[in-house]
Amino acid sequence: MRILALATLLLLPPTLPAQTFVRIGVGATLSSTLVGEVIQAPISQRQSFAPTGQVILGWALPSGYRVGAELRYAHGTLDVDDNGTSDDLGRLATLLVGIMADGPLRGQFRWEAAVGMLRYRPAEATGIFRDGTPAPLTLGAGISWHRPLTPTIDLVIAGRYDFHSFTTDRLTREGYSSSQGVHRGALLLAVERGF
């Protein structure tokens, strides 16, 4: 139902002179290791390749810069690699709620910057998520390319990098004294509609 409402917004005739925009995109997210250690052999856990959906509702400023609220959902699995042997520990989704800004870079390219909270959503409260799930602060930056399809609709290809620190209550109880830096990269194909 929400997707239908957003699709309807994209198809409505413009009512304002391109002050507001909506972006709806799909793509994929790759993540670095969430937890890694070496006991007798290397062991690591990470979110798998994750199909991703994105919605941004934003506002254009007279200066050419824009700000917006962003929602991004990535759905993968929690994979463990134990000395070259991989295993799937069940579904692991992430939900990012944040604020983004962008501005002109060169030609049809724009820079992007974002800050938000990333909520980990495992299928079950087990393993590293047994005692709760983290919601770390996330910082991101990227580049987007815009190609006008009509006077009010653009095709957008966006690449985004973000970073956050990762730890859980379970890891702290197990003696992990510091958090792990997690790097994530996303590539998205989107349609953006100005109003």
Could you tell me how far the N terminus lies from the C terminus, measured between alpha carbons in angstroms? Answer: 21 Å
Question: How are the strands of the biggest sheet laid out side by side?
Answer: 1-4-5-6-7-8-9-10
The number of strands is 10
State mean pLDDT (0 to 100 scale): 84
Helix content: under 10%
Global outline: elongated
Low-confidence stretches: 8-17
* Class from helix and strand fractions: mainly beta
Strand content: over 45%
Order of helices and strands: HEEEEEEEEEHE
Q: How big is the Rg?
A: 19 Å
Task: Describe this protein's structure.
Strands 1-4-5-6-7-8-9-10 form an eight-stranded antiparallel barrel. With 195 residues, the protein is mostly beta strands. Helices cover 8% and strands 65% of the residues. Mean pLDDT is 84; it is low at 8-17.
Task: Write the topology of this structure.
Elements: H1 2-11, E1 20-31, E2 35-38, E3 42-47, E4 50-60, E5 66-82, E6 85-106, E7 109-122, E8 137-148, E9 153-166, H2 169-173, E10 180-194
Antiparallel strand pairs: 1-4, 1-10, 2-3, 3-5, 4-5, 5-6, 6-7, 7-8, 8-9, 9-10
